[in-house]
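INTERNAL AUDIT FORM
Audit reference: QA-55
Scope: verify that the stored structure record matches its stored sequence.
Auditor: D.O.
Record contents follow.
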Amino acid sequence: MHKLFFRSKSGLLLVFLLLGFHNLKSQEDCSRILEEAEILFEQGVIEDIPMLLSGCLDYGFSRSENERARKLIILAYLFDNNMPQAENHMKLFIRNNPEYTIKADDPAEFTQLFSSFTIMPAFSFGLLIGGSLTSAVMAEPFGLYNPGVDQGHFEASGPDIQIGATASWFMGNRMELNLEGVFTRNTFTYSNSQFGLAEFLKKETLERIEFPVSLSYDLPGTRWEPYFRAGVSFGIITGARAKYQHSHLNSDNGNPDPLITRETNIRDMRNTRIITGILGGGIKFKIPRGQIYMDLRYWYGFSQLSSGVNRWDQETVFRFYHADGNFHIDHLSFSFGYRYLLYKSRIN
């Protein structure tokens, strides 16, 4: 058994070595073919150049050699007055080198044909990660006490996290349609004085998946491009937890005396479908075949989070003398992202 295993490993190693040698040999052969094609071009023998180089275009050349070979094929067709084939191969050249810029030593014929094409981003996809700070806003308080007097208040307890994926379609030179999928966690606290005899504190954590749809507009720039964004997000609350604390006031010293603390699942007390407005902007920085960016957004909650059916949960009411009011959450987010660009080209 050990000998068989050893022989199998030796056989696999031999196969990998042979494949590596074959690839190295193929690249050496293709490099020699490219040199021969360049000599033929200088001698004016251009008819056979495309066929000579075609077998190495997909696998045999290095990146720089592939660029030289594709240029040579285009020039061969141009000098042979075969404009349709020259244009087809220019499209292939642009597909492989969408961010190519004309060099000083590029032939005038190649430069003229390349300049006749318009090249622009068509689509992008990427990832983002960042944080947020949550602000809850009470629209209508409820409770066993007098909600008109003791309305309580919310406070942020973050910062929170968000992570997601993005996809964008370019609509002209500066406008983009953006679709995203973002996981967001929001934490906040609510506190209230009940009848002046007790204090109530609740720390809540919401987990949700957001699907923002937005339009963004880029301002003029070079490598740094500022932009603005506006849109709407459709969210699903996937988790909701709360930790309650109820403290009777100690009449001797006036300090709260905690009696009860616990953490519980309150997802059934939340509306799980929410809609949020988005307004923001940021800045993009161009890198090869992509962009990195910083994004700042304000998310305004249109949807009330409390489920009216379950707000009078008996345990919450009788143990903590609390019932959720109607409220929504806003949050400010800051994220970093990367996106990969895909281009399209057309002849003018």
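Auditor finding: record pair retrieved intact. The helical segments are 2-42, 49-54, 63-79, 83-96, 108-115, 314-320.
Action required: none
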